[in-house]
């Protein structure tokens, strides 16, 4: 199914895996969520028309604020930036597509369908009403019992799964598919900002995934992490903000990248201090993980720790200063053309400066006591985040000609900017003027009423200004003049060197920067050429390390690239159905416990949710198998810059990035266990279980690591029997591990009396941590066994003789699962 | 392997920073013994506030010459005691905790502002000025009626406080009984 239907066919948009199509889908969907989040924002503003207005009920107001935050941060800002990233990062680095096109489509569909789940949550007895920070223990079912609250968190978890796939995809693409001669430092700045963003996302979103999984375990299975009296509430704060602060830069950096790009294009000048800007971006990315406690200055955290975090927080403004000054100097030294995209980018800089400076105040502990909980904070982060998004609107004007092939109306664009800018400052600057208004309630000093009414009018103006943009784009798309390849006089990046819109395969010849500027080399792209073609070009042009040896290792190297697959959509749909079912499954099933396993009674009061859950799960397995069997070919670039991962093959690199994010997921689970144990008193806990079953399991798993290596060895020797034998051995060892685990759990529950919420030895939360953490590991084992079973069936049919690499990828995952156990074993069985 | 010199610097800086961070965290924990939760802000079992000397009966107590401690419990949806009656021109240490979810405790118009986390006791010390009244609000979402959650502080002249302090000495008495 690799033929792609035409763009006019609806079917195309469900099966496309092409990065440009997916980019357009992201952009349009993100704009839809902008409207949704904007509507919620207007509801909030109408409520603030007078102090204590009852336009919305109290709970409805809380829900509106919560979903406004979630929608804008997760479903609008990041995906809007990643629409551009999808479309332009491959073009800017000279790649044909992202490294894993089907995975990219999967990310999009996970994102889009998770947004629908969030919408549905409103109709499941009311959605989450905790604020977007979802502080514990308000987030547990005891205080927010509605199914919609669970549904909203499931939607977030599904979004994060998609995001993680996207992160891995971008990291692999940027590290694996840069055109010849494009070193990391040569990359366009938009791509640079995306690279920094995805590195932050790899670690930050893994922490969010972990915290969402723990919360879902609390909400669906009934574990007691965040209601634990041993620091459960503080644990949420740490885990959430460890993600939450990098998230600010994650949503801002794509906008910053657009700003850097546009300042160059419309000042006709290379960015001043380019390498220092890149260094600053890297520093910010690292430092962003070291400032999270400034969101927790009002908690009981030690003053020493707070002071350290104050220093790092205020320190992070220094690299930002460097970037801002670089932007200003770029303008001073250039000849500015005041086009619509530039106006938005310039406006974004002004707004970001206001947002940044007002944020430095909040970074100081003592001032934070004063400002915390007021509209100062609200105004500050809107200036930063929405101010940043202003540059993204510049980006959409800048790239609209390239994406649509039509020019927009310049006059309407400028009108949009003026009204947007006025509306923006009216609504958010009025918040600074009325900063003593408490946030999170709709009561305030009547003296501020004129200011808030002014702000509400500004919000309406701001909202309406977008209809000018929608009208402009719609009219231009239908009847606008055709856009030339490069409508801007001075652009540096490769997307302007191809037609508007670019052809499906992006390039007419292989893009190369080997000579110092962009050239298209023709011979290497012709697949019918013999191997000397690319090799000769490499010998003539560039030094070493372009991996022409890779060509032989791809048995299908002369196949055409595939662009269509329905399975990303199907898998996402199945996941959505599964998650929808999960949201209500715990309230529709009653489990009565007894003294033995067989005495356990299950009553289903409402079959709808359990049925959805089961259907979704079956759907996931079925679509995943179909995905694995599909003949889909994404050609690796034969000649590319890959520093610093020259020797690593594409899928393996992706696997490593995935494992890095999984390390953080387990890291968060283990940190949670340690944090709660420290809060409870480390030495007051004894291991819940005998160490013997755990010890046996350790040996079983370690042995299975050897068998999986032997499976690979035999696959390389093209021995079908050996491969089947050792894969089977691995599966048997995995099943042995699970059996011992199940016996152990059974023993704990029915003989010792340790269940998810009860612990006859001591703290109940210790039992929760034991079951949930080893359960997550067990889930990894189960998924590993499913994959191994898939490999075994295919090996039986003769697969992996020519290309044993899938066995190797599985082996990496399996080793990782084993290594995690080596850490969990002492944590739960020895100490 | 061809590596651009800037890329080498980038790598060295990145690695250096990571090592510095891990080093500083390890040093902080092992060397000076910095712990994440301040030792002088003790924890409390939020499900058993009834058994705690301070929070079983939230009150204001004199602990020294012109020094007072105010034990406050935040709950869905209010503060106890309400109003919190304080003597003028004295030093008051608030010890605030929650019996259910995370709340906020902000004395409106001042920088006396803290989060109130179940299981943690938030401590903050203020100087009361002349007699006046303050509102207290909750800054964190805490449930359906969060909007209406408020308390109040009445700063009264010293002599008036002592007259009404009968209640707090009762509190002392019951504390002694336990």
Automatic annotation (TrEMBL), chain A:
It comes from the Archaea. GO terms for molecular function: cytochrome-c oxidase activity; heme binding. Residues 555-831 form the Heme-copper oxidase subunit III family profile domain. GO terms for cellular component: membrane. This is Cytochrome c oxidase subunit I+III. It is found in: Membrane. Residues 529-548 are annotated as: Disordered. Residues 7-514 form the Cytochrome oxidase subunit I profile domain. Pfam families: COX1 (PF00115), COX3 (PF00510). GO terms for biological process: aerobic respiration; electron transport coupled proton transport; respiratory electron transport chain. It comes from Halopenitus persicus. It is a multi-pass membrane protein. The chain crosses the membrane at residues 23-44, 65-88, 108-135, 147-170, 190-216, 248-264, 276-297, 309-331, 343-367, 379-400, 412-434, 454-474, 566-589, 609-629, 656-683, 695-715, 722-740, 769-792, 812-830. Belongs to the heme-copper respiratory oxidase family. Gene3D superfamilies: Cytochrome c oxidase, subunit III, four-helix bundle (1.20.120.80), Cytochrome c oxidase-like, subunit I domain (1.20.210.10). Keywords: Electron transport, Heme, Iron, Membrane, Metal-binding, Respiratory chain, Transmembrane, Transmembrane helix, Transport.
From TrEMBL, chain B:
The keyword Metal-binding applies. It is found in: Cell envelope. One of its GO terms (cellular component) is membrane. PROSITE patterns: COX2, COX2_CUA. Keywords: Copper, Metal-binding. Residues 157-178 are annotated as: Disordered. GO terms for molecular function: copper ion binding; cytochrome-c oxidase activity. Residues 55-167 form the Cytochrome oxidase subunit II copper A binding domain. Residues 168-178 have a biased composition (Gly residues). SUPFAM superfamilies: Cupredoxins (SSF49503). PANTHER family: CYTOCHROME C OXIDASE SUBUNIT II (PTHR42838), NITROUS-OXIDE REDUCTASE (PTHR42838:SF2). This is Cytochrome c oxidase subunit 2. It comes from Halopenitus persicus. The lineage of its organism: Archaea, Methanobacteriati, Methanobacteriota, Stenosarchaea group, Halobacteria.
């Amino acid at each position: 199914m690799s033929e792609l239907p035409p763009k006019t066919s609806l079917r195309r948009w469900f099966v496309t895996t092409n990065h440009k199509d997916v980019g357009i889908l992201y952009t349009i969907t993100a704009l839809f969520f902008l409207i949704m989040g904007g509507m919620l924002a207007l509801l909030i503003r109408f409520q603030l028309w007078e102090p204590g207005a009852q336009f919305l009920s109290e709970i409805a107001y809380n829900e509106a604020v919560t979903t406004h935050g979630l929608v804008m941060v997760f479903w609008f800002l990041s995906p809007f930036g990643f629409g551009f990233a999808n479309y332009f990062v491959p073009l800017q680095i000279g790649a044909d597509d992202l490294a894993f096109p089907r995975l990219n489509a999967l990310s999009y569909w996970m994102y889009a369908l998770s947004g629908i789940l969030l919408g549905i949550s409103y109709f499941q007895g009311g959605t989450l009403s905790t604020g977007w920070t979802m502080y514990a223990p308000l987030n547990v079912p005891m205080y927010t019992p509605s199914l919609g609250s669970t549904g909203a968190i499931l939607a977030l978890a599904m979004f994060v799964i998609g995001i993680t796939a996207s992160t891995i995809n971008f990291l692999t693409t940027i590290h694996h598919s840069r055109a010849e001669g494009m070193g990391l430092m040569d990359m366009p700045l938009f791509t640079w900002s995306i690279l920094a963003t995805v590195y932050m996302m790899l670690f930050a979103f893994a922490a969010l995934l972990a915290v969402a999984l723990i919360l879902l375990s609390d909400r669906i299975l009934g574990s007691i992490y965040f209601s634990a009296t041993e620091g459960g509430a503080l644990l949420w704060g740490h885990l959430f903000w460890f993600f939450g602060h990098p998230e600010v830069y994650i949503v801002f950096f794509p906008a910053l990248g657009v700003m850097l790009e546009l300042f160059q294009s419309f000042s006709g000048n290379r960015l001043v201090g380019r390498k220092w800007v890149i260094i600053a971006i890297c520093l910010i990315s690292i430092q962003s993980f070291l400032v999270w406690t400034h969101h927790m200055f009002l908690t009981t955290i030690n003053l020493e720790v707070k002071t350290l975090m104050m220093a790092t927080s205020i320190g992070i403004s220094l690299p930002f200063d460097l970037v801002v000054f670089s932007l200003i100097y770029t303008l001073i030294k250039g000849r500015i053309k005041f086009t619509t995209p530039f106006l938005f980018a310039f406006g974004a800089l002004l707004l970001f400066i206001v947002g940044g400076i007002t944020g430095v105040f909040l970074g100081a502990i003592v001032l934070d006591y004063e400002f915390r909980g007021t509209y100062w904070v609200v105004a500050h982060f809107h200036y930063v985040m929405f101010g940043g998004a202003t540059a993204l609107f510049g980006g959409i004007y800048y790239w609209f000609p390239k994406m649509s092939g039509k020019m927009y109306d310049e006059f309407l664009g400028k009108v949009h900017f003026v009204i947007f800018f006025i509306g923006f400052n009216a609504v958010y600057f009025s918040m600074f003027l009325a900063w003593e208004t408490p946030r999170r309630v709709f009561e305030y000093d009547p003296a501020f009423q004129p200011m808030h009414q002014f702000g509400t009018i500004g919000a309406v103006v701001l909202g309406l200004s977008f209809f000018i943009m929608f009208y402009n784009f719609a009219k231009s798309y239908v009847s606008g003049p055709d856009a030339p390849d490069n409508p801007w006089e001075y652009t540096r990046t490769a997307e302007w060197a191809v037609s508007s819109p670019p052809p499906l395969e992006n390039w007419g010849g292989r893009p190369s920067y080997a000579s110092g500027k962009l050239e298209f080399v023709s011979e290497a792209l012709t697949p019918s050429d013999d191997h000397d073609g690319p090799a000769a070009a490499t010998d003539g042009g560039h030094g070493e390390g372009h991996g022409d040896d890779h060509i032989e290792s791809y048995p299908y190297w002369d196949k055409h690239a595939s662009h269509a697959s329905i399975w990303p959509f199907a898998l996402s749909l199945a996941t959505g159905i599964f998650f929808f079912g999960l949201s209500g499954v715990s309230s529709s099933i009653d489990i009565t416990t007894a003294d033995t396993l067989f005495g356990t009674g299950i009553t289903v009061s409402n079959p709808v949710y359990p049925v959805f859950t089961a259907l979704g799960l079956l759907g996931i397995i079925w679509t995943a198998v179909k995905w694995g069997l599909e003949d889909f070919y994404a050609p690796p670039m034969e000649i590319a810059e890959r520093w610093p991962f020259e020797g690593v093959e594409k899928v393996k690199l992706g696997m490593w990035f995935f494992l890095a994010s999984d390390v953080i997921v387990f890291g968060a689970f283990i940190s949670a266990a340690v944090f709660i144990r420290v809060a409870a008193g480390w030495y007051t806990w004894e291991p819940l279980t005998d160490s013997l079953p755990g010890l046996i399991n350790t040996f079983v798993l370690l042995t299975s690591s050897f068998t999986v290596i032997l499976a690979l060895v035999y696959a390389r020797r093209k021995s079908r029997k050996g491969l089947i034998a050792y894969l089977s051995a691995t599966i048997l060892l995995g099943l042995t591990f699970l059996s011992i685990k199940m016996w152990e759990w059974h023993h704990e529950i029915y003989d010792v009396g340790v269940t998810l919420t009860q612990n006859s030895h001591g703290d109940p939360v210790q039992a929760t941590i034991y079951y949930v953490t080893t359960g997550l590991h067990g889930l990894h084992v189960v998924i590993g066994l499913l994959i191994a079973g898939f490999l075994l069936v295919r090996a039986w049919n003769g697969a992996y003789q020519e290309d044993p690499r899938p066995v190797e990828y599985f082996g990496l995952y399996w080793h990782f699962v084993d290594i995690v156990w080596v850490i969990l074993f002492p944590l739960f069985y020895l100490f | 392997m061809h590596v651009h010199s800037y890329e080498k610097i980038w790598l060295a800086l990145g690695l250096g920073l990571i090592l510095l961070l891990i080093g500083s965290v390890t040093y902080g924990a092992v060397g000076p013994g910095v712990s994440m939760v301040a030792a002088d802000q003790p924890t409390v079992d939020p499900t058993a506030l009834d058994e705690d000397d301070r929070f079983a009966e939230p009150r204001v107590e004199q602990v020294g010459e012109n020094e007072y401690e105010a034990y406050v419990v935040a709950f869905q949806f209010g503060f106890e005691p309400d109003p919190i009656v304080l003597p003028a021109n004295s030093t008051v240490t608030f010890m605030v905790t929650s019996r259910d979810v995370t709340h906020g405790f902000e004395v409106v118009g001042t920088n006396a502002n803290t989060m109130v986390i179940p299981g943690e006791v938030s401590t903050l010390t203020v100087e009361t000025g002349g007699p006046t009244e303050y509102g207290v609000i909750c800054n964190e979402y805490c449930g359906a009626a969060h909007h209406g959650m408020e308390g109040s502080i009445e700063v009264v002249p010293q002599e008036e406080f002592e007259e009404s302090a009968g209640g707090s000495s009762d509190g002392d008495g019951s504390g002694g009984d336990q």
